[in-house]
Amino acid sequence: MNDILMSTLRLSVPLIFAAYGGMLSERSGIANIGLESYLLVSAFVAAATTYLTGNLFLGCLCAIVATSLLGALFASICIWGRGDQIVVGTAMNLMAAGLIPIATKYLFDVTGSTPSLPIELRLSHPLVFLSVAIVCTMGLHYMFKYLRHGLRIQAAGHNPLTLLTQGVAFDILRLRAVVEGAAIASLGGIYLSLCMSSGYIRNMSAGRGFLALAALIFGSWKPIPTFLACLFFGFTDSIQIRLQGIQWNGKPIPNQFVQILPFVFTLVLLVAFSSRMKAPKAINQDIR
Fold it and tell me: pTM of the entire structure?
């Protein structure tokens, strides 16, 4: 039981950071389906920079900066380029999945992964990341409830034109929220490549960005419910890992059927509770 608990906590961490990255974006009115690209880019940049420079701090810093720039690009296209937010987010996912193997081939002459990092260049304390995730949960809860910045983000997601009466440019506010969310989500990618693994592996996010988005929706775009939803999805992921290799009537169940369990649970929950989920009213709307 203790092993399942620890596994659940370990697997939930990247979901939590990615979900909070999406939360800041979506509560400001920018639908963000590109969370997978945040995880992939930050995981790759963290591992590649750390290996090339031998500096763990610089690797983490570059990953945060690169993911923030990706978030700024995404927001700029959606806000000022009038791009459809779902289409642009999907394009970001495809771009990250396609460009990273090219970068690894150019840098390391290997398609899709970085060289293994020595133990001294890894972050070997997952509970530290979990502690940071808990701090983020409390911080976001307080921000959305009491701080002016959080209240303005919510206003931008529900009725952005009201901000104009206060002299606040909602487009700049949305850009800031998306970039802040990307920076938080980058911690999930750093965790994947430098803590859960010894480097970047091709498509190592393995759909966690989409699970994080589902947890965000299931948590009604609120920090604490989203945190609990991420723990639940981490638990289902932990269970599917333990169920791999089991047999039914003397025959092994194909691992593919076991591996889809977290996604099946996600779909069932979203369908079952869809009537209770209310997205920000101005999300994915062209406000002129």
Answer: 0.91
